[in-house]
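Colleagues,

For the teaching module next term, I've prepared a clean inverse folding example: a structure given as tokens, and then the sequence designed for it. I'd like students to try predicting residues themselves before seeing the answer, so please don't circulate the second half yet.
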């Protein structure tokens, strides 16, 4: 986790926002592109989640909200460094037949 991630989570705990609003709320110290990049990282960690907000009939924007995991992280109850993905089993097409010795 980077320092900007915590600041993003703090802002989202107040209310849902889009990446542009978050960049402005962070006093312009971080570009909207960087905020968008960190939001995707936080979404992979399940700390935030995106949703589409309809602005007009033909226009919508992606807004972000904090999840329970993000709230628990801000409360100091979750350590993001301990969340290690478990490897998945190999698919059947990538395994060798049982009788194949590989010599």
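(Answer key — instructors only)
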């Amino acid at each position: 986790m980077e320092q900007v991630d915590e600041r993003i989570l703090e802002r989202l705990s107040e209310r849902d926002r889009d990446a542009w609003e978050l960049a402005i709320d962070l006093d312009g110290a971080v570009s909207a592109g960087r905020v968008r990049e960190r939001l995707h990282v936080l979404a992979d960690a399940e700390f935030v989640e995106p949703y589409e907000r309809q602005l007009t009939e033909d226009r919508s924007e992606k807004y972000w909200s904090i999840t329970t995991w993000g709230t628990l992280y801000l409360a100091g109850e979750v350590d993001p460094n301990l969340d290690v993905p478990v490897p998945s089993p190999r698919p059947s097409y990538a395994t060798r037949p049982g009788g194949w010795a590989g010599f």
